[in-house]
Amino acid sequence: MPPHPIYINGTWRPAASREIFHATNPATGEVLEDAYPVSTWPDLDIALSAAAEAAPQLAQTPPAAIADFLNRYAQRIEACAAELTARAAAETALPLAPRLRDVELPRTTAQLRQAAAAVVEGSWSLPTIDTTHNIRSCLAPLGPVLLMGPNNFPFAYNAISGGDFAAALAVGNPIIAKAHPLQPNTTRLLAEQAVAALAETPLPKSTLQLIYHMSPDTGLRAAADPRLAALGFTGSRRAGLALKAAADQAGKVIYLEMSSLNPVIILPGALRERPEKIADEFADSALAANGQFCTNPGLTLLLAGPETTAFIAAVKTRFQSRTPGTLLSEGVAHGLRASVATLRNAGATLLTPYPPSPAPCVHPNTLLHVTAAQFLAQPDALQTEAFGNASLFVTADSPGQLAEVLAALEGQLTGSIYSSTTGADDGLYIRFAQLLRPKVGRFLNDKMPTGVTVCPAMNHGGPYPATGHPGYSAVGAPGTLRRFAMLQCYDHVRVGRLPAVLTNKNPTGRTWRLIDGTYTLADIPD
Amino acid sequence: MPPHPIYINGTWRPAASREIFHATNPATGEVLEDAYPVSTWPDLDIALSAAAEAAPQLAQTPPAAIADFLNRYAQRIEACAAELTARAAAETALPLAPRLRDVELPRTTAQLRQAAAAVVEGSWSLPTIDTTHNIRSCLAPLGPVLLMGPNNFPFAYNAISGGDFAAALAVGNPIIAKAHPLQPNTTRLLAEQAVAALAETPLPKSTLQLIYHMSPDTGLRAAADPRLAALGFTGSRRAGLALKAAADQAGKVIYLEMSSLNPVIILPGALRERPEKIADEFADSALAANGQFCTNPGLTLLLAGPETTAFIAAVKTRFQSRTPGTLLSEGVAHGLRASVATLRNAGATLLTPYPPSPAPCVHPNTLLHVTAAQFLAQPDALQTEAFGNASLFVTADSPGQLAEVLAALEGQLTGSIYSSTTGADDGLYIRFAQLLRPKVGRFLNDKMPTGVTVCPAMNHGGPYPATGHPGYSAVGAPGTLRRFAMLQCYDHVRVGRLPAVLTNKNPTGRTWRLIDGTYTLADIPD
């Protein structure tokens, strides 16, 4: 069977490829039948030119038409939800229900629809007008965007259907999507639905393009190509940093989500007050999806004491009593074993000893421990992300030592503090919150970090190296749309030549605009 | 006389310096008396630690106190305007009036006051609340910011008083300012006023710090230091790119303004309609401040024809009849001569032949010409910025060829199109506007690019390499404040632990917040 075609320049066509690959079912080890091409530079070259050609047309397409595409696509995803979730389950070993069917797929269509609603409403672009000087500005499309998604969300972060796709396309940028090579069957079906939805709209055919795989070198070359305006990447820090270096060097806009330990501080008063509840919450969060969430709580900070000793034992019991599921791939399992080894080599004690893995894609639930003194001696090695069902507990002898650990932490997506409801921890809370707050994008109280609500106030982002820019969230319209936009100012531009959102008449009647210093829905008198 | 002290860690103290420098009056060549130190790493080390210590305090300072500082500082600048403008005139040769006294100094105090007003009003931080999930987010301080200003605006872009200073400090970030070494006397007086204003407020003493000079290596080391959160730089592309590489490598936020040719397209109908008026406007803009504006029109695109031939002759007459002023420094004069030589070596014809320069800091008004065919043969060399009173005209044989020139242009701060008022140029306008618009931050009609109005709708920014991020403006509150901020989300955080702008009560009664999808000034019912 020849490899599946890619979708570039408005058609499904064979890739320029000397190499093919197959997906594997991680639960069974079965190599799946369909063959997919590893694209080489000629494919990217065509895609980049097609995207560059589509960019000005798409930039002038009314938001309603773009929203129409996003809504139609969401509807089509729902219509083939059964097939999509079956394919995704086979490629990822993630549970078909509730995870894929009831959580991730609805989240994905919600993201597409929220992006559609935001772009039609129009306030996302921060339209600003000074009538005295006739100076007007708003955010506007950037140009072709290359997207690469991660292995752990086959729908919600897929480069052809996820949050970056919804945001970058809603703004009016042509998308070149690269599938995650673990999920080509899922991605193909998504792309087929996207192409079908596109055909029902007046959008340019190269509004979206899909390749399945490429070599790192091809990716780095594309990142620096003059026809490309921006990149979005979610995945490993190693790959992300390589892409960032190439994009930075060429002056490209790039948004990355790379890694996070999502530290959780659990204060003694909280542990005395509700130890079992917190142990349940921790185990549920740390082992959800076998720990394969970007917001997985990988690092827990505790003050040594009897309540902490009891808590660690309670978590250990839970880790050992729950059956580990199948990881996303042998690569993930291999990476997890390597990370656990790195942590142990840096002094972490394994609290959950285990025999050799029962299957290539299964790893026992793993709890590790170090003292804060050990952590502070090797803070880099002990911040190694162990992507999967492993978690590190750090116990400090004093609040001051825990503060030192906080000071040594890298930037993170999230950080949580559990504290007593009676005020017993408030002094510690204030001290630690001040240190943790600036290091994390989302700061939580009494709540584990997994579970990212798709809503305008969400921040799925954070300081480097969790992401590449601390000012933006990868989730939550309207803010997430602003990533893939440039600020365009119109100075003394004649009436009739302005974009609709900057004309005297409010184009929708409900677009908030900052006019002469006042936020208003009103028109400007002619 | 020993060198002047620097202001770090809350005191004026001698620099760790083995090297001193003096300012020079470019108009007379006189070396000015005061000596200033070139700081070495120990100064930066102290400043970075002091800034890191001030950061959490400043982050918790109420916006009103920060605004109070900014307003007091603006008032003090006005109170010593005579001395400030005298010093700046001596160090830059810019006219004391109207430029320094009536334009730049009032612009500077306006920027400080507008930043103060924006931070008190609060909407700049895009507060967003979802009550259903109790998720709340807003932009918040990033941490210590290192600022470096350019040579051409001794007040409005000075690292201790300019737009970046106002924006980054208003947000609540401690500032480490590096003076431009051409303007130490001006910068010292500004810093003295800033320090005096600071002492009248409860802000931490290391809210601002000042050094006068440092080696490039020291600057690059500081850029990558873990204590630093962000950088702001305005200046040459060479220095900016070196700083960007260091910051990127370390994952720091950096905003740069580096270079721009500010292309102006003048269409044939406009030239037939009002040739003398446009020639006046062009010469006024191109020769304002001897061409030493970042928005100077350095590249003019024309369609070959009799009206263009006449226009070029009209501009040449103006360039030759006006007396060139003194440039900012011998370095600027040297750079300008080198850039003109680069352009001529790439095929540009000198339309304004001149004898050797009459003085080291004077350069004749210089008009150069190439055909579009020549330009397209060497687009990189012919986009060399000639900072100063030199400008390049490109004449195209056809609209298609002019479109090719547009396609070859780098990112720019501004781009202008002059067209006939009767509609004669409309077809060409539409074609060229579509190509020029995405390449420039501010797009103008029938207007030259110099003159940056300080207002909310201004975009003084643009695609790389004009700046480092196309989404932001260096001028215009509230948007310009958002550069030096991180997105902070609060998920399930208890009442009483939220920042004021995210509490149920609207903290000012006039802060716009996006609550459950609706922009409102209302409180949330408790």
Q: What is the count of helical runs of chain A?
A: 15
The CATH topology name of the largest domain in chain A reads: Aldehyde Dehydrogenase, Chain A, domain 1
- The outline of chain A comes out as globular
Q: Identify the biggest protein-protein contact and residues per side.
A: A-B, 76 and 76 residues
Beta strand count of chain A? 21
- In the CATH scheme, the class of the largest domain in chain A would be Alpha Beta
Distance between the termini of chain A: 65 Å
Counting structural domains of chain A, the number is 2
According to CATH, the homologous superfamily of the largest domain in chain A is: Aldehyde Dehydrogenase, Chain A, domain 1
Q: Approximately how much helix is present in the residues of chain A?
A: 25-40%
**Beta-strand fraction estimate of chain A:** 15-25%
Oligomer: homodimer
Largest sheet of chain A: 7 strands, mixed
Which structural category fits the helices and strands of chain A?
Answer: alpha/beta
Annotated CATH architecture of the largest domain in chain A:
3-Layer(aba) Sandwich
What layout of secondary structure does this protein have?
The structure is a homodimer of 526-residue chains.
Chain A: E1 6-8, E2 11-13, E3 20-21, E4 36-37, H1 41-59, H2 63-79, H3 81-92, H4 96-121, E5 128-130, E6 135-141, E7 145-148, H5 163-171, E8 175-178, H6 184-199, E9 208-211, H7 216-223, E10 230-234, H8 237-249, E11 253-257, E12 264-266, H9 268-273, H10 275-287, E13 299-303, H11 306-321, H12 330-345, E14 349-350, E15 366-371, H13 372-377, E16 390-396, H14 399-408, E17 412-418, H15 426-436, E18 440-445, E19 485-491, E20 513-515, E21 518-520
Helix pairs in contact in A: 2-4, 2-5, 2-6, 3-4, 3-6, 4-5, 7-8, 10-11, 14-15
